Amino acid sequence: MKIRRNAALLALVALTIGLSGCLNRTNDYAELIDSSNVLIHYDKQDRDRMDSFIERAKQKKYDYVLAVANTIEGGKLIYDLVSDQQDGRIHLRMDYSRDIYTGQDDAKQEYVCERIDWEKGFGERGVRLSSCEGLDADIQLFGFSE
């Protein structure tokens, strides 16, 4: 009888410790995903973050930005940018699969580019990638109001 009581007490302690570990966790993934790396408002804060990404890329330092832009019809365009410190290039993944007017063959594209910079025009600063593998022209991604 004493062995059962000790076993039950041990099981209760283990269950309590296990549950306390679960209760301290949140469903907020803020620790895993730094929200400053996600551009969705295209305001001054997002522009400053993109400016930081461009400067770090020019210095051939690692950085990461995920930009979500809206189409005129309300679809989402996702730009996944990584500045790679290993090869000093910018890796771009474009995901148009959430835009219903994009064909599925063109929904996802990937490029590796040598340079990234700002392009000014019409009261806006746009992000431009150049010297991309497999492309003859530069890629104009998205812009920020001045």
TrEMBL record:
Top-level taxonomic group: Bacteria
Organism (species): Cohnella fermenti
UniProt entry keywords in alphabetical sequence: Signal
Classification of source organism: Bacteria, Bacillati, Bacillota, Bacilli, Bacillales
Signal peptide boundaries: 1-25
Name of the protein described by the UniProt record: DUF4362 domain-containing protein
